[in-house]
Design goal:
It is a single chain. Strands 1, 2, 3, 4, 5, 6, 7 and 8 form an eight-stranded mixed sheet that branches. The protein is an alpha/beta fold. The chain has 17 helices and eight strands. It has a single domain, classed as Phosphoglycerate mutase-like (Rossmann fold), CATH 3.40.50.1240. A hairpin with a 2-residue loop joins strand 5 and strand 6. It is 39% helix and 10% strand. The N terminus is likely disordered. InterPro entries: Acid_Pase_AS, His_Pase_clade-2, His_PPase_superfam, Histidine_acid_Pase_euk.
Length: 448
């Protein structure tokens, strides 16, 4: 049974509700906006553009490129969280008081090692529910594009279990939890996350050996300052735990994943919102240099964008809805190739927090992130519109169409020009025995 993502009353009356969005708090005070892509899904702020067009035009095709739903931390992160948990739990503190007074009753939220990296099942922000609700919302908005007939509805997914779970739950939501319809009409196509997939994949970052070798591009990491002060504050108000700035960082990450897994977290309540603002920038600067603005990022994302353009160029196709589920890294590469990061005029500072930056991982790739691209035909010309996490984001280099849309032919020209000398196959040296192009959107029936 599926329940709505409603924040329970116990949270609403809790002190740390100041961190959650509410009618009396500005969006900037929403904790979910500062969890660096590790926390639950949250809608994008955008630029104030209406998600619905001002007249009755409806898209004829929709392409969705989404991240999996909320998950447990991967094993390396889980080990770091367990280390700070054990340190605080085993501290010899006779009187536990202040922000950390909950430690005596504190429980670790990961049931066991087998749960690491898996989609979360419980709590108000669980990944299964997020993806089910996503599917349901897409059916309500674009369901008219799927003809209820014998034709299967393909749902493409990367091979990790959390991505497959997301694709399946999305499909169940799309078919309104009707198991008979889902089993009869949905077809989940799983694409391996291996190098042998070449360009025919939803994980080009795995296929590209050169990209993997070119890692660690983030040579001068951001060094935070506020977490040092936060550690002093906690040690003053809750003496005896000997909290360090490193512990504060781990606790902030703990908060994000505990929300994903349980739906609430007393750790969130113990930390100041400024701590999460700094956490977010730690994550943003790391993801900017190692993923989003990486020298190989455009080439990796161009595979997906080029496929989307080709699908949208076709006048008639058997499908008008294209659903894909993968990882946050792939979404960042997609946005790079689409030109979204042109809004970020300069590389992120590693000396101080750039408060005016466009690139914020919580805005762009929270758990359950989704890029929705709509194709319209206006005066016999095709135009596209981009929504990232439900917020309309015009393409910086291409927004002169009606309602800040982008003419498809212009986007094709922009991307094609950038791909010259920077295409995936050449840059990543994909050998001839591996797929040289992405074809699964067209030949998926042959693979079933």
């Amino acid at each position: 049974m599926h329940f709505g993502n409603i924040i329970p009353a116990s949270i609403l009356i809790n002190q740390y509700t100041e961190h959650f969005v509410s009618p009396i708090h500005a969006d900037q005070n929403n904790l979910l906006k500062h969890l660096g892509g590790m926390g639950p899904y949250v809608k994008g702020t955008g630029f104030g553009l209406c998600p619905e067009l001002e007249w009755n035009a409806k898209p004829e095709k929709v392409f969705i490129f989404a991240r999996h739903g909320e998950r447990y931390p991967t094993e390396p992160v889980a080990k770091r969280l367990k280390a700070v948990f054990d340190k605080l739990k085993n501290a010899d503190v006779k009187k536990q008081e202040g922000p950390l007074s909950f430690i005596k009753d504190w429980e670790f939220f990961i049931p066991g090692p087998d749960w690491c990296g898996m989609e979360t099942l419980y709590g108000d922000f669980n990944g299964f529910q997020t993806m089910f609700d996503f599917g349901k919302s897409i059916q309500l908005k674009y369901g008219y594009l799927y003809k209820d007939c014998d034709e299967k509805l393909p749902i493409f997914t990367a091979g990790k279990r959390r991505c497959v779970d997301s694709a399946e739950e999305f499909g169940k939501g799309f078919f309104n939890d009707n198991d008979e319809k889902y089993n009869a009409q949905a077809k989940v196509i799983v694409l391996d996350e291996t190098k042998r997939m070449g360009a025919d994949t939803l994980t080009t970052s795995v296929s590209c050996k050169k990209y993997i070798r070119h890692g660690e591009y983030y040579k001068h990491p951001f060094i935070g300052k506020y977490m040092i002060s936060e550690a002093k504050r906690l040690n003053t108000l809750s003496p005896g735990f000997n909290i360090t700035a490193k512990d504060v960082y781990a606790l902030a990450v703990f908060c994000a994943y505990e929300l994903d897994a349980v739906g609430e977290s007393r750790v969130c309540d113990a930390l100041s919102l400024n701590t999460f603002v700094e956490l977010e920038y730690f994550r943003d600067s790391e993801m900017w240099y190692e993923k989003a603005a990486h020298p190989y990022s455009f080439a990796l994302g161009s595979v997906y964008v080029d496929a989307m353009i080709k699908l949208f160029e076709e006048q008639e196709t058997k499908e008008n809805l294209f659903f894909s589920f993968t990882h946050d890294t792939e979404l960042l590469h997609f946005m790079n190739a689409l030109g979204i990061f042109e809004y970020q005029k300069e590389d992120l500072s590693t000396r101080n927090i750039d408060f005016l930056r466009f690139f914020k991982t919580s805005e762009l790739v929270p758990m359950g992130a989704r890029i929705v691209i709509e194709r319209y035909t206006i005066n016999k010309e095709h135009y596209i519109r981009v929504l990232i996490n439900d917020a309309v984001i015009p393409i910086p280099e291409c927004q002169n169409g009606p309602f800040f849309t982008c003419k498809l032919t212009k986007l094709n020209h922009i991307v094609s020009e950038k791909m010259k000398g920077n295409n995936f196959v050449d840059k990543c040296r994909i050998t001839e025995e591996r797929p040289q192009e992405l074809t699964f959107y067209w030949d998926w029936r042959e693979r079933c």
